[in-house]
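User: Fold this one for me? It's GTP-binding protein 1.
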Amino acid sequence: MTLENTIQYKVDFDALDEQMANLNIDSDTSDIVFKTIKDQISDPNTEREDFLIQTFNKTFEIEGPQTIFTIGPNDKIDSSLNIESVTPTDKPELNKISDKANHQISPRTLYYLFRKIPTRIEDTMEIRISVLGNVDAGKSTILGVLTRNILDNGRGSARSAVFRHKHEIDSGRTSSIGMEIMGFDKESSEVITGDQNRTLPWPEIASRSSKIVAFHDLAGHEKYLRTTVFGLTGGLPEAVMLVVGANAGMIGMAKEHLGLTLALKLPVFIVVTKVDMCPANVLEATIKQLFKLLKSNGCRKVPLYIKSTKDVIEAATLHSGSDRTCPVFLVSNVSGNGLDLLRNYINFYPQSNKYNRNKPAIMEIRESYSVPFVGTVVSGVVWQGSVHSGDQFWIGPNEFGQFTTTVIKSIHNNRSPVSVSFAGQSASFALKKVARKDVRKGLVLISKGTDVNEEMPKAYYCFEADVLILYHSTTIDLKYQAVLHCRAIRQTARIVSICDQEDTLRTGDRAKVVFRFLVRPEYLTVGSKIIFREGRTKGVGKITRLLSPEEEREIMKHNISQKNK
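Assistant: Here's what I get for GTP-binding protein 1.
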């Protein structure tokens, strides 16, 4: 069994007491679960298997479709047990992380990864990772190496496989939002790839995978910052992979991207590339600079230098539950050093459980297309609920804040036709009776009920937000305008009220501010994070209140009265 032969379901014995508390299982039953798991590993039995399936299904409902299980020396399990996979597809797959890996971690401890095996493509576990970093750091190259399971030749052969446009191939620089997927096999949990002469299509990868990782390749050049911010906010990533060149360190846009990631409170892990061509003293200086930056007051991160499989497991467990840790990997895309640890970490990384499938469905539109013989097609990430073919939806708002109705004709997930798409998944929808010219980025699809008198969703021009000014050369006053990003929304907004200050803001100030969109109203939700920028000015915040037209008029009257004093 190879190092990549990770197990497909995870339960952490160290945290089992907490899990049992969440499941409302008493201590006696907890002991039964422990014993049943151990007995099932050593002597498979149908009755035990049914009991474990019920227990793990409850765990998956709470923790998501993946969890890691540790059997330590106190659990009295023979470390030489030979674990076989559970073959039925409707049951959790159980594999030992590997004899070699387990011995490397501890000769008396076994680690198991449990992952729910999907019976349909639409049930496949999916996580999204945005790839950031300075220009020429090697972002597209490492994506080509990871998703194609190949090595680079040192002259850009791997990155050419993921570029979308000819001018990107010519210049070697990404200028658009690229997307690549990496699937982990249902049986062995190895990366699914083709051979040297054939790249596997997405539908084949999706059909063979128990877990799919979607990478968003974002531009590193400063002139493409608008596109990068849109990809970071609209893509709803569950983690950010910050790529740093070992020969250059944290320079240019790398610090900018790290700042945006921290402002949005997204988990981040760092991949230091080009270690094969970097002198030892330069690499050491880069690592020191990186660790110093992560520990600084602005970041307050705990860097974890990943050297072994034990570090990978600890990082995947800690990183998913804490925003303080920051794993750091050293890799070479030419020699392949460190790539196995990075792949294992991505494989172990759990899915976020922030999505609710029981609420009415909402999806924000990131892209729109006109497909011959199909019609208008939109794509994005489902926030909440589930979308079925034939469902009725509100779509909007238009220029006047109005919503119209449409019907979902068909659904594609990872370019495969499916019947349903769940919260947390990326999907494309063919819409009925919707013209391509009436669709733009930032529109939303909201589930429509059966009541004919159902109230139309509301769009807002004005909202209140708690903001932090990251940088501004002078002061920000009333009527200040900037481009505001909120999820897939990208529109110019004006400050119409500053509640907590003397109508001025400077770098580092926090305040409650009222923004107003200049062009059209948008569908907003309380708690959504925002980024606003204008030139080198940048700020972040969170929406705290949506203002009705009456409240907006009161603010305008107050501003006029203050001006006349």
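One thing worth pointing out: The domain at 122-348 is CATH 3.40.50.300 (Rossmann fold).
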